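At this stage, I wrote out one protein's amino acid sequence and its backbone structure tokens, and that material follows here:
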Amino acid sequence: MEKDKETEVIPNTDNTDNTDVRQSLPSALGISWGYVKQQKRGPKGELSIKMIVDAAVAIADKDGLAAVSMNRVAQSLGYSAMSLYRYIESKEDLLLLMQEAVCFYEIPEISEINNWRDDIREYVRVTVAVFCEHPWFGDIPLSGVPMTPNHLRIVDWALRALRDMPLNDFEKMSFVLLVSSYARSVGLIQRDMIRAVQAGSSPEAFSGLSYTAALKQLVSAEQYPYLHPIVASGAYTGENESENTVGNDFDFGLERILDGIQAFLDRKQQ
């Protein structure tokens, strides 16, 4: 699945009067939904919301979220910070638009055969990838449910996998939250591992493999009666991966979540 290289803002195409809708949306949400017209003021009218957001994403990808400021973004574009405020009211709005920009993915075509497990696996894979491709993404605290177009398209995609299930709306959204929470957790762990390796560590050090011998001496059966046999066997640090019958830890966890959903469905249909 190829990610679109351009930031997409989905325009409002509803012919109804949306005055009340526009007034109820915070500034950044209005921009994301296409309710805010492109400003023409400024030098030669060359600056745009898309240019500002793309520049901010590029800075965050390269130097981290802490490097993103209205001044830094403006300088990278050759403008003053005041020029940016004509288009985006605050840094908080900019952060929301950055998140929205990197969440634009081409959703796979719907298949005639609904293999819901495969669909959820792909949904989780794409969600995890966002955290790894844009490490700053997980540094922005959650501030509420998804409200922007691209985020909601991803939620809609997850719900599509559950379309033929005998579930009520609450159950569907609860399952989407469950797999989304797992994807976020996995994404953050994989992101942190990538960061550690880039900083000079190694995958073996991150997993604890480099310290297996020391742990076997430190983790005694008296102090850690249940952890001790796990450390002694090498399973804690992945010492004997060739003997691992489970496979990838993260995939194993996802499969057990999917098994749980299936078990829930089976009970409902009894």
Remarks:
- Residues 169-198 form the longest helix (30 residues).
- The domain at 25-102 is CATH 1.10.10.60 (Arc Repressor Mutant, subunit A).
- The chain has two domains: 25-102, 116-201+240-268.
- Confidence is low (pLDDT under 50) at residues 1-11.
